[in-house]
Records
---
Amino acid sequence: MSLYVYCLGDDLSGAAFEGLAGVGGARVRVLSLGVLSAVVSEAEEGATNVDAENLRAHNRVNAAALAHTTPLPCRFGTRAAPERLGEYVTSNETALASALARVRGCVEMSVKLLEKSEVGSRKSEVEGDAVGTAPSAAGAGTAFLLKKRRELLGEEGARRRAEEAAAWLASGVGELARETAARLSPSEAIFVRAAHLVERARVEEYRDRLRTLAAARPDLRLLTSGPWPPYSFSDIKQ
């Protein structure tokens, strides 16, 4: 038999998952593994289908855990035989306890930054004009080099804007984030993605801070979501 594993914790209660359907519609239960426990359901043979319903079920179970405690969430599709799961928890008990202490009493909040389109367009135009265009008499080699130079300056400008925006966000959130995990994607519409580990008691204060930050930067759109289980901070080796 194989188990589908949703999360690990040291304060998980089966009552939190009563009547809850897990991945594949399976019954969800809490499996005691000594000091720690795992939230699991029986897994069907073969790989777990990556579809909308299963993704929702995975998130639904972890959200139920988060409503009662802060778990260490597992990635979608995590499976293990019962004995292997027990061996893993036993051999990594100290590290898992430290990981739980790291996130205890916290939730993950997500922020995505986008440049407002009209501002981004104006910046691109300015950067293009600053480079200049090739004279009509220029050869193909010169035109190619100028084109590559424009592309390089555009990439550098996008990278600088992403770094500046990420630093501004981190500074603005400040002490409200116990930890931050940020990913920069300068060439994409959502050019900064940040996850913040926030104490439950300070979530509303955090949201107020983001509203203040958004008002101070009309050139940016801030998309926020959460609270979520601390996926970005769980450090579970799977």
---
Amino acid sequence: MNQREMLNSIRVYQFCAVELNLFLDNFPEDKNAKEDYNKVSCKLTELISAYEKNFGPLTNFGSAYVENPKAWVNTPWPWENCSREEE
């Protein structure tokens, strides 16, 4: 998976996690939703780990271990990754 595909997968799993979390707020005893949420959370954690290992940190809020503190500012910013054709 390239950087763009991996970032898109992270966004998809983040969306699913939020939606499942909202669902569980209303139906906290739903076993299937709990299982789905745990699976999505596990996959999301794996994806974020792999992304940060290969491409650098996603955030600068202390949630990721970083060997090079300058990596956050040395990689392109999100708006620098988009070309006009994709907008």
---
Amino acid sequence: MPTPTSKTPPSSKVATTTRFDAISRAELDRPDSRKWSLNEGTIGAWVAEMDFGTASNVRDAIVSAVTKDELGYLAPPTWARTTAAASAFFERRYEWAVAPERIHHVADVMGAFDVFVRHFTAPGSPIIVPTPAYMPFLVTEALQGRETIEVPGVIENDRWTLDFDGIERAFANGPANVVLVNPHNPTGAIYTREELLRLADIVERGGGRVFADEIWAPLTLDGPPHIPYASISEEAARHSVTSTAASKAWNVAGLKSAQLIFTNDDDLEHYRTFGFGVVWGSSILGAFAAEAAYRDSDDWLDEVNRALVANRDLLFSLVADHLPGVRAIVPESTYVAWLDVSELGIEGPPAKFFLDNAGVTLTAGASCGAGFEQYVRIVFATPKPILEEIIQRMADALARR
């Protein structure tokens, strides 16, 4: 596997204090929080949720709907407002013009992936998953018994990127389908236009398709702007299906509302023959929340990105000071960091060591793909005092060995 080097972020090592830092552990550690209740008594730093709540206008939209008993099936007017808000957001933030009628409701991105595999790929064609990967892409039932080809990423110029030669080799036996998570979870890479074009060329020549998971697109921190895969060329638009959601950036994953975007006219027409059966899995409360998020919550989004930059910089400063054997590439986006702990000499799975000895719940690298057993994923979207406690606990656990 590639070996990252430790690198301090370019901004100040003294992270800016934000209003989110006043949130206490007592407020977060509650039984109805999956992040905090998975392993009782530990600090939850594993599931990709923020501990910052959501934007006030998103909360108001949800409360208003509940107060008015708007709790039925997703209605066409709500559907239309949400897709219009999403369309405007994509153009405003990414300079990507997507007509609202190309945007459809689905419960979540993995539900969109299920639709993609079932209806828009050749029967039996393999699924290429660049690794490290978002864990469900390697185990989901949506794979329907398909061959999964893991292609580990590479590090070039202190950045994680795709192994393009490896992806091309995966097409050796015929058309295949590529899962593209951009911005990338768990490495935090934001792929450049040149990288996306290179991937598109491989896929087009191989007669394949791309599922573009762009759920992290609003959270580019202080990195380069997000470039939607389908926007880079006519070929990419034709051979891809895109999905995104407000769930990561506005912390509303439990409301089950995502967007499924078709940039191929034939795909869109085909979807219209069965899509009515997909939309019912999408929540009306989630649609209200997504509409509010996409329509007029840019200030919240900008504030959250600034807070995450400060947290990321603090994390890497703390790691350098207290966990000097840990190596990592500074993420350009998201609120997860991908840490190589192979030099710490931990016996057994590192995530289990930190769970048992530090009381910190992390994501095991092994669940993100073969060869990443000596990595852990950490979520840094938490108040700074808690982030400091996480790293101190990890350091103390190592010192006690």
